[in-house]
Structures are given as C-alpha cells and as structure tokens.
Amino acid sequence: MYTYQEMLSILNNGGYRLTDQRLSLLQVLETFGGSFSALDFEKKANEMEPSIGRATLFRAIDLFLEQGILEKIHRENGDDVYIVGSKGHHHHIICRDCGEIRDIDACPFEKELEEVIQREGFSSTIHRIEIEGICESCRKKGEGKN
Ligand SMILES: [Zn+2]
Ligand SMILES: [Zn+2]
Ligand SMILES: [Zn+2]
To answer: In the structure, what pLDDT confidence band is assigned to residue 79 with cuts at 50, 70 and 90?
Structure first.
C-alpha cells in the first residue's frame, strides 16, 4: 500500500493542486490498515476535517481512483470497498469472512490471457481479476467450532 509520501508525489507528479482538503484526505487514507467503505471514509474525513463536504469527498475519491491512489474492490455480496492502492500491475485475494484483502504481486494470468487477447485481435488491453475465498485463519476458526 502506498504511504502518505507516495500518495503525495503521485498527486504532485500528476500536476494536481495539493489543497489542504486533499492533504487531509490522504492523511485519513493512511490511517486505514485494510479495506473500508465510502461511508467509513466519509466519517473519518469529517472527524479530521469537518469542512469537507460530500461533493468534495466524492470528487476526491474519483481523482484518487483515477490516479491509482485508491482501488475499488468488487465484492460478491455487492458491498464494494476501497483500499489504498499499490504500485504496478497486481491482483487481489479477498476473504469473504473477515474481509481481509491481500495483494498478489505477480500476475498469474498473463500468459493465458495473452493467448486469448491475440486470438480476439485486441491491443492495449487491461484486465481486472479478483479472487474471493476464505482465508486460512478464518478457516481454522470455522474448524474449531465443529
Ligand atoms: Zn491493490
Ligand atoms: Zn478471513
Ligand atoms: Zn494480471
């Protein structure tokens, strides 16, 4: 996950103004250890900086998503969540029980996808693949109950 400094330089390099509100929002992001909802973000943002309105917050979320500072994770249960982004092409594996999200750094799908893409005659493609399951510690907890 990006650190505060890294998020700052992404905005800086993109030529975006580092307004006080944007800086506060980056500080809020740094306090999240894992995934969070838009509502979680809004609550924490308002605690830190009551002057940030809803419209400003959602515009900032759009900007952060566009710049890769934030990543939106689609969940099977329909409750999409956000996490602070990380560098480079990667995928996520998500625990359905505790909601933990881990980065998978190497792309395990590259080779197979390349064949499909070539066959379809596409170029400049992107892909998003998320894996959802039960993590080891949740599985152990589940076994303990039986
Ligand atoms: Zn990620
Ligand atoms: Zn879990
Ligand atoms: Zn990939």
So the answer is: confident
135 is in an annotated binding site: yes
Number of domains in the chain: 1
Q: What is the CATH number of the domain that holds 137?
A: 3.30.1490.190
Instruction: Give the residue carrying structure tokens 């092409």.
Output: 89
Q: For the chain, give percent helix, strand, coil, nearest 5.
A: 45, 15, 40
Q: List, in order, residues 6 or more apart from 54 with CB less than 8 Å away.
A: 42
Domain that holds residue 15: 4-145
Question: Is 98 annotated as contributing to ligand binding?
Answer: yes
Is 90 annotated as ligand-binding?
Answer: no
CB atoms within 10 A of CB 11: 19
Q: What angle do CA 29, 80, 106 make, to 5 degrees?
A: 75
What's the pTM? Answer: 0.85
Nearest-ligand number for the alpha carbon of 81: 1
Cβ–Cβ under 8 Å, residues 95 and 138: yes
Q: Binning pLDDT at 50, 70 and 90, where does residue 77 land?
A: confident
